[in-house]
Amino acid sequence: MTYAYVYAPITAYSREWSGHSACNGGSGLIDISEWTYGSAGDEVRAYFSYPAVRSIHYTRLDNCCSACGAAIQRSVKVDVYALPNLGCWMGWVLYGHLDTPTNSGWINLSSSQTSVYIGLVPWPPANCSCYDAAHSHMEKSNAVKLVSPDQWVTAGTTPIYRWTVPDLGSCPI
């Protein structure tokens, strides 16, 4: 069995909260933040395991914590594919709360490009209950969450979610 992974978008601690809300109906919610020093201004990148992940499609959304301002509600949903040119969809991962997020688009990954810029971790606004400290929110579909609460994760190397790569011979293109 072959697996595909998405790795931590920033270096910090994984955090989980009771009553945590999904931005896009996903599961396996996790926030990644170094709350002692703050993560605001950190670049958020989507890192994938190539060649298990061959292409991605990313869509900018505005669906995360809309009561707290534009930067907090912005998110990017990344659909993950096992074949080039958006073939053989495996699931998606969403990155929530983004300053200067990327626009929508798609790419084929390669051994020299296994990540894409997603946005920046925004500064927390005053009186915002769903974003009271700088962090990168993540959620997923069709994947298994691999991290534990309060685990130190390293950008681009610590796996956060895992998909099972389908049989590519029978996968619709």
Q: Would you mind describing this structure in some detail?
A:
The protein is globular. By secondary structure, it is mainly β. The model has no long low-confidence stretch (mean pLDDT 90). It is built from one helix and 13 strands, in the order βββββαββββββββ. 2% of the residues lie in helices and 44% in strands. The two termini are 20 Å apart.
What would a concise description of this structure say?
The chain is mainly beta and 173 residues long. The protein has one helix at 70-73, and strands at 3-7, 12-15, 27-33, 43-48, 55-62, 74-83, 87-96, 105-108, 115-120, 136-141, 144-145, 152-153, 159-164.
Topology (SSEs and partners):
Layout lengths: L2 E5 L4 E4 L11 E7 L9 E6 L6 E8 L7 H4 E10 L3 E10 L8 E4 L6 E6 L15 E6 L2 E2 L6 E2 L5 E6 L9
Antiparallel strand pairs: 1-4, 1-13, 2-3, 2-12, 3-10, 4-9, 5-6, 5-8, 6-7, 7-10, 11-13
Q: What features would you highlight for this structure?
A:
173 residues, 44% strand, Glucose Permease (Domain IIA), mainly beta, 1 helix, five-stranded antiparallel sheet
How many DSSP H or I helices?
A: 1
Specify the structural class: mainly beta
Give the proportion of residues in helices.
under 10%
Anisotropy-based shape: globular
CATH architecture assignment: Distorted Sandwich
- Cα-atom radius of gyration: 15 Å
Number of domains: 1
In whole angstroms, the N-to-C terminal distance is 20 Å
Largest sheet: 8 strands, antiparallel
Quickly name the level 1 CATH class: Mainly Beta
Number of DSSP-assigned strands: 13
